[in-house]
Amino acid sequence: MTVAMSADPLLLTPGPLTTTETVKRAMLRDWGSRDPDFERLTASVLQELLLIANAGTDYAVVPLQGSGTYAVEAMITTLVPREGRILVLSNGAYGQRIITICERSGLKVIGYPVPETEVHDLAEVRRKLADDPSIHSVAVVHCETTSGLENPLDAIADVVIGAGRKLFVDSMSGFGALPVDAARLRFTALAASSNKCIQGVPGMAFVIARRDDLAQSRGRCPSLVLDLEAQHRQIEADGQWRYTPPTHVIAAFHQALQELREEGGPPARLRRYTGNRDLLIEGMARLGFSPMLDKAVQAPIIVSFAEPSEPWFSFQRFYDELKRRGFAIYAGKMKVGGTFRVGTIGAIDRGDIERFLTAAEQCVSLMRHLAK
Ligand SMILES: *Cc1c(COP(=O)(O)O)cnc(C)c1O
Fold first, then answer.
1. Dihedral angle sign, alpha carbons of residues 258, 264, 265, 271
2. Measured from the CB, is residue 343 less than 6 Å from ligand 1?
3. Mean of the pLDDT values across residues 272-278?
4. Element (H, E) at 218
């Protein structure tokens, strides 16, 4: 797979990420936002997202202008009632962000933080839910992009739904590749965005939500623009977004969804990303870089590596030298520090990872040489 301009580095980042040339080209048209063609485009995108999530007629997809966090905040502030408590399972910055959203909007939140390299003790979750009937819902991050960890969504859903609570999922960096089956998971709502595993460009996010919960949340959201129920009602009524939609982004997203289908849907995409990840981890190990996570919890989305502690290594120099060779990597975000990340999602395949590894090897040799 190739990028449009050879001067642009390949983005080995978790979104924005490398998109195909055809996705980029889909943006070369101006759409009237109130034109029937554009309404059809929106309707087709929403329909396709429902199919990907295996969501039946009891679910609706509500799109939202903005980055992924807009959708997470819209989901929480529209669909979580003021009176109930929300338990947030956190093992990274995105779980913490949900807690912050709850605090900022005055929701009663209980955090259950565990270290960034670990998953939650589900017996403990079960206990917390049994002990506190005031907990109305549970929120969880599917793939914690902070570290690259995949939380066990199926098992978490079993505990939460089994305890009669509502489940909210931030599947931002997983949706489109990691399996999401609404009929099985029975979540109340799940948020994701255009610029991660669906391989669109940034600017649009969406929430897949139960229709009855949406209907019951009328007037609840304290924000005008983040009111998912109002956005949903408008789109249902006349097919239109409430405020100016990012038309070019949606056209690119429509194209990206078509390419996802042509590739073979989320299972095929997951296979490609898994191949990328395995090759990356293996190749980086040969260069002396170890992943921060245990294999059992490492998602095929992004990999956090420990920076070598020897004086020859400098992240800034590594980044700059890789970029000169056509690759952009990602700074680390884990609390422990001394990490960097390499994404394995986007329009990239094994050949790209092999080329990246060759470039990384050159950079390592150069840095070692300069340190002598
Ligand atoms: C990318 C991401 C988000 C949203 O981040 P934005 O910068 O607002 O797009 C939320 N949660 C997770 C897990 C993510 O990876």
1. negative
2. no
3. 98
4. none
